[in-house]
UniProtKB/TrEMBL annotation, chains A, B:
Protein's name according to its UniProt entry: Maleylacetoacetate isomerase
Domain GST C-terminal, residue spans: 93-213
Keyword annotations from UniProtKB, A to Z: Cytoplasm, Isomerase, Phenylalanine catabolism, Transferase, Tyrosine catabolism
Database matches in PROSITE patterns: GST_CTER (PS50405), GST_NTER (PS50404)
Length: 217, 217
C-alpha cells in the first residue's frame, strides 16, 4: 500500500463512537493515520467548513478509505468487515449476526445518541449528569437482560464481535457519568474481559495522539 | 409455511421504526401477523411485563421470526436481507452498501432517537415541538447534503434500499412536527417518488390494523 492510500480516521480521543472504529481497525490490523477533531476546542472543530464538507452531520468518526469517505461508526465497521473480513466481527450464523446487530444498535441508537455532547448541551449544565445517568441506566437495564441470554465470554458467544466494540466505549461513558455499575454484573464482566485485549488497549481514549498529557496512561 | 411459523411483528401504527420494518416485509413479500403495541394507551403497553420479556428496551418494532426474537429495526432488516435476499435492500458494491448504511444510521442513530416519544416526554410538553424541529432540521441539513452526492431516483442510485426505508418514515415525522421541508428538495423529491410505491403504501401508518378510524386513509 502506498503512503497516499493509507486510511485516515477523523477522531476525538474521548468520542465513544470513534473508539468503536479504532478497535475495529486495531483488530483487523489496518494501518491508519489519525486526524484529531477536537469537539471542545475552537468552539468545536467539527463545525469547521472543512470538516462539514467531509461529514455534514459534524460528528466523529469519519473514515477516508479506498477512495471514499464514510461516516457513522457502524456503517464504517460493516464496510471494514465486508472488505477486510479477517478476523471477522460478525458471526457466520445469521441468527447470531442478528443478535450482534441488535446489541450494537441498542447502544448506537438507543443509548449513546441520548447522552452525547450535543444533547447534553441542550439539556443545560445543571441537568446533564442526571439526564445521562437516566439514559444509561434505562439502556443498561435492557442490555444486561439481553446479554444474559446471548453472552459467552463476550457479548455474543465466545468470539469478539461488533457488539463488543460498542459495549466497552459505552461502559467508559457510564463511568465518566458516575453510573453505578453494580446492577450490571454481565456487562461489567464482559467489559473487564475485553479491556484485557490488546486491540481495546491501543485504541483506548487514554492512548490517542490527541489525548491531553494529564489524561494519558 | 405452517400457520405457527408465520412471523409476528410487534408494531405501533405511528412508530417510524416499525414502519421501516413493515416496508421491508412488504418489499420482500413476507406474510406476517401484526400484534399492535399501543405506546400511549394503558400508560404505554410497551411497559407490560409480557412485552418487556420480548424486548427489554420496551420499544417497537420487535419481530419473531425463524424461532428467534429480534429488536432494533435495522438489525431486523439486515436479518431479513441475509435470509430473504430478494429483492435486495443493500446494493452489491461494498462502497454503495456503505453509503446506504451511512444514510440509514444518520437517521436511525442521529435523528430519530432524539425526537422519539420517550425523549420528548422528558423534555416537557412546552418544549417538545421546538426540540423535535431543531433535531430534524439539523439532521435534514446533513442528509440533504449527503443525498446530493449519493442519490439517483432513490437515496443511493436507482434501486430502493434500506436507506429509503428509513427516509420516508422520518419525513412523516418531520411533517407531524410541522418542519418546513422547503430547504430539502432532494429529500422531498425522493420521498414523493417512494410514496408512490405499493410497499410504502400498504405499510403506511394510515393503513395498519391498529390505525384509529379517524386517521385511516
Amino acid at each position: 500500500m502506498t503512503e497516499s492510500s493509507k486510511p485516515i480516521l477523523y477522531s476525538y480521543f474521548r468520542s465513544s463512537c470513534s473508539w468503536r472504529v479504532r478497535i475495529a481497525l486495531a483488530l483487523k490490523s489496518i494501518d491508519y493515520e489519525t486526524i484529531p477533531v477536537n469537539l471542545i476546542k475552537d468552539q468545536g472543530q467539527q463545525f469547521s467548513e472543512e470538516f462539514q464538507a467531509l461529514n455534514p452531520m459534524k460528528q466523529v468518526p469519519t473514515l477516508k478509505i479506498d477512495g471514499i469517505t464514510i461516516s457513522q461508526s457502524l456503517a464504517i465497521i460493516e464496510f471494514l468487515e465486508e472488505t477486510r473480513p479477517t478476523p471477522r466481527l460478525l458471526p457466520k450464523d445469521p441468527k447470531k449476526r442478528a443478535q450482534v446487530r441488535m446489541i450494537s444498535d441498542t447502544i448506537a441508537s438507543g443509548i449513546q445518541p441520548l447522552q452525547n455532547l450535543s444533547v447534553l448541551k441542550q439539556v443545560g449544565q445543571e441537568n446533564q449528569l442526571a439526564w445521562a445517568q437516566k439514559v444509561i441506566h434505562t439502556g443498561f437495564d435492557a442490555l444486561e437482560q439481553i446479554l444474559r441470554s446471548t453472552a459467552g465470554k463476550y457479548c455474543v458467544g465466545d468470539e469478539v464481535s461488533m457488539a463488543d466494540l460498542c459495549l466497552v466505549p459505552q461502559v467508559a461513558n457510564a463511568e465518566r457519568f458516575k453510573v453505578d455499575l453494580t446492577p450490571y454484573p454481565t456487562i461489567s464482566r464482559i467489559n473487564k474481559t475485553l479491556l484485557a485485549l490488546e486491540a481495546f488497549q491501543v485504541s483506548h481514549p487514554c492512548r490517542q495522539p490527541d489525548t491531553p498529557p494529564e489524561l494519558r496512561a
